[in-house]
Amino acid sequence: MSSRTVIRGGLVITASDEIHADVLIEDGRIAALAASGTPAAAAFGYERSETGAPPPEGWGRVIDATGKYVIPGGVDGHTHMEMPFGGTTAADTFETGTRAAAWGGTTTIVDFAIQSVGGTLREGLDAWHAKAEGNCAVDYAFHMIVSDVNQETLKEMDLLVEEGVTSFKQFMAYPGVFYSDDGQILRAMQRAADNGGLIMMHAENGIAIDVLVEQALARGETDPRYHGEVRKALLEAEATHRAIRLAQVAGAPLYVVHVSAQEAVAELARARDAGLNVFGETCPQYLFLSTDNLAEPDFEGAKYVCSTPLRPREHQAALWRGLRTNDLQVVSTDHCPFCFTGQKELGRGDFSKIPNGLPGVENRMDLLHQAVVDGHISRRRWIEIACATPARMFGLYPKKGTIAPGADADVVVYDPHAEQVMSAATHHMNVDYSAYEGRRTTGRVETVLSRGEVVIDQREYTGRAGHGAFTPRTTCQYLN
Question: Does residue 57 register a pLDDT over 80?
Answer without folding.
Answer: no
